[in-house]
Amino acid sequence: DAIAWLEQRTADDERMLPALADFYERERRWSDAAGAYARILRRTPRNIDVKTRYASALMNAGGKDNAAKARDALAEIVAARATEARPLYLLSQAQRRLGDFAAAEASARKLVALNRRSPWGYYALAEALEARHDYQAVVDELAPIVAEFRGKTADTSFDVGILLPHLGFAYQELGQNEKAIATFDEAHKLSPDDPAVASYLVEANIAAKKYAAAIDVAKSALAQNPDDLRLLRLHAQALRHTGKADQGIALLEKAATTHADEPLAYISLAQAYADADRVAQAVKVLQDAQAKFPDNDSVAFELGTAYDKQKRFGDAEAAFRAVLARDPENAAALNYIGYMLAERGERLDESVNYLKKALQIEPDNGSYLDSLGWAYFKSEKLDLAAENLKRAADQLPANSVIQDHYGDVLTRLGRFDEAIAAYTRALNGDGDSIDKGEVDKKIRTAKQKLPKK
Questions:
Q1: Burial degree of 288 (CB within 10 A; 0-12, 13-18, 19+)
Q2: CA pair distance 169, 184, nearest whole angstrom
Q3: Which domains does the chain carry?
């Protein structure tokens, strides 16, 4: 075993440490690789290449502490060598993971200025803007540069290919479904064997309610990647929308058997059961999965959502609290508890506290802003409700629930013209989780309250 031999040799002869670090990287033993590079840096603290590799290994090892160490090391490199591209790229990544999105954006823009012909600065910039949920800014930055790269005589398929998914996601979040589909379709043609890109295209077609197209893409991709769980889940979802939920569930039941050691298989099956109003079966699947994966936060979270659908609110809250006990900064769990309480009009001060904490972690998350605005609405704090719901509605114009919530607070404030516009956006949006008849009724009521001309 080469690694064991090198470990033994480097105990007395540190000249072999670079080889050991390289072997650790090949085996994806990132923490060990970072440790080896740290030992090298004690001997050669100014070696830029080693310090960059050390930071990269820390980033791959994951965790906030490692990201902070990587950021500090990379900041030293960038301060000494401002024209080094890779450290600047990694610095933007570390800053983003630590929640310093403004710094991540600034580093990415420096990288763009360093080499406008490379896609990596734009890639880092897109990730920083996505972290701030500024999807229009992603479109504004990427659409022209993708068009520019396309127009070059040299082969820029790689450059375009890594940027297109980010552009597609931004279009999708903005409710521009046709542009999202066209963007993901182009990415799929550039990377026809990539199941991740295929799944983006399937998801975009589902969002646009083009279920037949979604099924066609999913079938084609699954022919090449029959065990890809994300593709199987999306295929099942598209089948449900065409009245074939049982076929989709059968696919996922089989996947749960063949992927018995993967939590995602159970989560996907449970979601399919819940979507088909078979919530009791969803709960059973997730309870079994929790027994098998007791420390998996995703399983516990999904179990909480299933309990919520059963109106077992105490059990749901306990499931989310279990997630938070392991990960106090799980923003999704904080948001879910906060919104669940707000929706029922219970313990509203506690609800607001949960949601404020979620927004401390993700300050610009439109869904969390909507939840906080709704909690304030239920608390009769209408000005605070309007402030947060406007930010959410501006960020996610195609989210029907958010537009409906915003319309409700505007109605209460007597701003009927604006309320009608929000309700109209709700009707024209994704249509998820709203009663269109009720929203239409709200529009008619608001129109009756407009001043007579």
A1: middle
A2: 9
A3: 1-132 (1.25.40.10), 135-242 (1.25.40.10), 244-327 (1.25.40.10)
The pairs formed by 138-143 with CB atoms below 8 angstroms and a separation of 24 or more are 138/166, 138/167, 138/169, 138/170, 139/167, 139/170, 139/171, 139/174, 142/166, 142/167, 142/170, 143/167
**pLDDT tens digits along 155-194:** 889 999 999 999 999 999 999 999 999 999 999 999 999 9
Tell me the mean pLDDT in the region 435-447: 96
142 contacts 122 by C-beta, under 8 angstroms: yes
Residue 154 is predicted with a pLDDT of: 80
State pLDDT tens for residues 51-70: 999 999 999 999 999 999 99
pLDDT in tens, 24-35: 999 999 999 999
Angstrom distance (rounded) from CA 43 to CA 36: 12
Q: What is the mean pLDDT of the chain?
A: 96
Spatial contact of 54 and 37, defined as CB atoms under 8 Å apart: yes
What is the value of pTM for the model shown?
A: 0.89
CA dihedral 146, 152, 156, 157 (to 10 degrees): 70
Name 429's Cβ contacts closer than 8 Å, sequence gap at least 6: 175, 397, 398, 399, 400, 403
For the cut 90, the answer to whether the pLDDT of residue 375 exceeds it is yes
**Quick one: pLDDT band at residue 445, thresholds 50, 70, 90?**
very high
